[in-house]
Write a structure and sequence with these properties.
Blueprint (H helix, E strand, L loop, with lengths): L8 H17 L5 H11 L4 H28 L2 H19 L5 H19 L1 H11 L4 H9 L1 H20 L1 H13 L2 H7 L31 H5 L2 H22 L1 H7 L4 H25 L5 H19 L5 H16 L1 H13 L4 H30 L3 H18 L10
Length: about 400
């Protein structure tokens, strides 16, 4: 008698962790480390270089409109492999750029599409398909890759850029990204049913109790659903502001007298603490009201931004970066667990793709506004207060969300 295959879900979670760690770590998480040396190399302002992060968010969001639905219908493994190759090629080409616009195009478009195809949306979609009872924990471990990659690559980038230069560092990152291909191809499977298994490793199909089930949504139905907007608008604001914050962390540290390498280490420690935040909030998402968890995360951001405004202490800056690393690490597992709860699994990629459009204006504007306000005022105080006000608005909107089963 043949033994049943070991449940593959946790191996897939492991691959999702790795892809997120590399693609997030080498892209938006490392951007703050490269901001100052690239601005110096091309005699550009911080606002001009920050435009690359904004373009990245735009392209990643727009590509999500196509990649998300493809993940629901096509081979996730193939899509992730294509994204990995595109990300690696963009990093290698960036190392040879001779004009600032070339870097903007390769990072803002090439890497954005690659990250969308191989990173958080793809791995979160897989976790939603392979787990139901433990979806919060699975999403927590999957999304732990983001802060883990941010922690490692922030520190590595600070050291590598100083020792090797930013061009050689990008080339090394491109080669490292390609190493993910064998793991993706050998492990990733679309659904447990494809190999005769069931979510969570159960021996039989689970009951659909109080979830969105496997009934697919159309784009029109989502756009007419109030719960969609009450979830994705607040989260879009929070994520957009987080992007603006992370983009300028090292620059803000330099304003406080913290050297670039030391700033990258502080950013890395914040990312490491984010790992604990991701696991903690992922665990709690299976047991506690997920709206409450998101509200706590938003409250931590508001308090931190207000405390940083007018702050001149490097010690306080360090403490806040670390604390926000923990809180920020919880955003994705709680958010994706809520998406699964309300909208189910059959349309998970579609929901995430369309929801990305809500992130777009906030993710685009936050880095630019922060850079422009810094250039205009000589400090980040105004930007930090703007961030606090925006997240407070997000918390008010989230209070109106009432998760529940789909209403016909």
């Amino acid at each position: 008698m043949n033994k049943p295959r070991p449940f593959r879900g946790w191996r897939i979670v492991g691959v999702g962790f790795a892809t997120q760690a590399v693609c997030i770590g080498t892209s938006i998480a490392s951007f703050p480390i490269f901001l100052v040396p690239i601005a110096d190399a091309f005699d550009a302002t911080k606002a001009q270089v920050s435009l690359g992060a904004s373009v990245f968010i735009v392209a990643m969001t727009l590509s999500g409109l196509f990649v998300g639905p493809l993940l629901d219908r096509r081979s996730t493994r193939t899509i992730m492999c294509v994204g990995t190759i595109l990300t690696a090629a963009s990093l290698a080409a960036m190392s040879r750029a001779t004009e600032l616009w070339q870097l903007g195009l390769l990072f803002g478009v090439g890497m954005a599409v690659g990250v969308t195809s191989m990173g958080p949306i793809a791995s979160a979609t897989l976790a939603a398909r392979w787990f139901r009872r433990s979806v919060g924990r699975a999403q927590g471990f999957t999304n732990m890759g983001g802060p883990a990659g941010a922690s490692f690559f922030a520190i590595a980038s600070g050291i590598a850029v100083q020792q090797l230069g930013w061009r050689t560092t990008l080339l090394v990152y491109g080669a490292l990204t390609l190493l993910l291909l064998p793991a993706i191809w050998g492990v990733v499977i679309n659904t447990p049913q494809d190999i005769g298994q069931w979510p969570d490793g159960d021996p039989q199909p689970p009951e659909e109790a109080g979830t969105g089930g496997d009934e697919a949504w159309t784009a029109g139905e989502l756009l007419r659903e109030p719960r969609f907007w009450l979830l994705v608008v607040p989260v879009g604001i929070l994520m957009g502001i987080s992007i603006g914050w992370v983009t300028h962390i090292v620059s803000l540290g330099i304003d406080l007298g913290i050297e670039s390498v030391q700033g990258s280490i502080i950013l890395g420690v914040g990312g490491a603490v984010g790992i604990a935040g991701t696991v903690t909030f992922g665990f709690l998402a299976d047991r506690v009201d997920r709206r409450l968890l998101l509200g706590l995360i938003m409250g931590a951001h508001i308090a931190a931004f207000v405390a940083l405004s007018g702050n001149e202490s490097a010690a306080i800056f360090t403490a806040i970066v670390v604390s926000l690393g923990f809180a920020g690490g919880g955003t994705m597992p709680v958010y994706t667990a809520l998406v699964s709860q309300i909208f189910g699994r059959a349309s998970f990629g579609l929901v995430m793709g369309i929801a990305g459009m809500v992130l777009l204006p906030f993710g685009f504007a936050a880095p630019l506004f922060a850079g422009a306000l810094r250039d205009a005022h000589g400090d980040y105080d105004a930007a930090l207060l703007l961030f606090a006000g925006a997240v407070a608005l997000a918390a008010l909107l989230l209070a109106g969300l009432r998760p529940g089963p789909r209403v016909s």
